[in-house]
User: Which sequence fits this backbone?
């Protein structure tokens, strides 16, 4: 019987290169590259082709520009218009990378899709569970929390039990010495543009300047479009005072940015909607879990209570700063992702 065929999502970076080198030892490996809305697409494609050639594997480009615009760029723009701060990477992972891109790869007779994410998948009684990667500083399980059972069942994370330094060392032993110091960009479609610049080009007729008010409704200044602001923001408000002001809420209906002092940013409870649980493993109301309210949040102890079929309340003993609607709360039971939901 022939070797299993593994499709590797390649980016031209160190992590996907490491996947190719690791997996081609025991599998037949094919490289695939997504064409999305990368401003540096030509340069990125050149790097990917070079890596594939040096690894001795075939490469195919999958054009998903139209679908990416529809599912991710529209979501990104609409969220900011509605006063929310989106997480495009989390949605892209579910809808594009492990959605349409994976479907296209599997449709060509590939057995599994491998990526360079720092995370792990285990199987228990037919249930696929997503767990943290070994490297705590590089763990990417947060961004993968919305993946479905079918997506996890067809996915390999070869770097899940490796640390970044081990990855660098391994690829350097294979002659790839150019990767150190090159980290991938958080939001691939922005390039050198700021969020505000990107949105202004996409929403040229919807700038809608408005008022900046305090929590009592007193007007303190003017904003240049609510999409330029997010919870916890301090800079760019143009308000002078003896102590700094921060964005504490955004009222999209009234086209207002609401500001307050630092203590107004702290909350004990948050509600999440569109909640999904790993293999229907519902949280126990009397147990403590670790909850991350954004990617760079270290996580905090919390308990969960159900409000309705798909809505839960998370209660933290210690108040959390800058809870942001539109971001995702990811619930961990030790290293296991139990579930996730969008912050309301």
Assistant:
């Amino acid at each position: 019987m022939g070797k299993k065929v593994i499709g590797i999502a390649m980016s031209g970076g160190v992590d996907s290169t490491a996947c190719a080198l690791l997996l081609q030892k025991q599998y037949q490996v094919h490289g695939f590259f997504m064409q999305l809305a990368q401003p540096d697409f030509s340069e990125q494609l050149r790097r990917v082709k070079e890596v594939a050639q040096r690894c001795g594997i075939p490469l195919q480009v999958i054009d998903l520009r139209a679908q990416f615009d529809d599912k991710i760029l529209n979501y990104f723009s609409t969220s900011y218009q509605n006063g929310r701060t989106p997480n495009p990477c989390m949605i892209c992972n579910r809808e594009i990378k492990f959605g349409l891109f994976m479907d296209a790869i599997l449709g060509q007779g590939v057995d599994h899709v491998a990526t360079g994410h720092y995370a792990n998948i285990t199987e228990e009684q037919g249930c696929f569970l997503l767990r943290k990667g070994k490297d705590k500083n590089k763990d990417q399980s947060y961004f993968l929390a919305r993946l479905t059972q079918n997506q996890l069942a067809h996915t390999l994370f070869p770097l899940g039990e490796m640390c970044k330094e081990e990855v660098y060392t391994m690829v350097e032993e294979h002659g790839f010495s150019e990767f150190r110091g090159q980290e991938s960009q958080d939001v691939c479609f922005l390039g050198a543009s700021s969020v505000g610049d990107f949105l202004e080009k996409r929403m040229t007729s919807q700038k809608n300047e408005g008022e900046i008010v305090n929590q009592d409704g007193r007007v303190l200044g003017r904003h240049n479009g609510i999409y330029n602001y997010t919870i916890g923001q301090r800079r760019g408000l143009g308000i002078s005072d003896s102590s700094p002001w921060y964005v504490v809420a955004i009222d999209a209906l009234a086209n207002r940015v609401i500001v307050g002092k630092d203590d107004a940013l702290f909350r004990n409870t948050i509600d999440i909607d569109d909640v999904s649980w790993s293999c229907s493993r519902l949280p126990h109301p009397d147990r403590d879990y670790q909850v991350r309210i954004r990617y760079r949040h270290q996580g905090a102890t919390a308990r969960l209570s159900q409000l309705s079929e798909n809505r839960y309340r998370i209660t933290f003993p210690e108040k959390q700063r800058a809870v942001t609607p539109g971001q995702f709360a990811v619930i961990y039971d030790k290293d296991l992702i139990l579930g996730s939901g969008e912050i309301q």
